[in-house]
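Sequence in, structure out. Go.
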Amino acid sequence: MRGYCSNNQAQQTAILKALEQLQEMETPRGEKTEIYTDSKVTLDSLKNHDIRGYLIEKIRNWFLHLTTLNWTIHFKVGEGAHRD
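Output:
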């Protein structure tokens, strides 16, 4: 990210890294997990398939990949978090 990024890019990168870590975990397939963020913008972007930013697409691809491994993943806005 060339040494700097927006708050939304930072949030998206954190979600992407969390998804990447799930595959590395030594747990049985079929686990359930929740990923919390304070970025409603990111969650709304993930739902809107007209938005095709690089990080959003990477998150979607990892999400789909993990669901083929029987992961159940829920994205939630953390309690008390600010709204972007």
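Check: The radius of gyration is 13 Å. Residues 50 and 83 are 21 Å apart (CA to CA).
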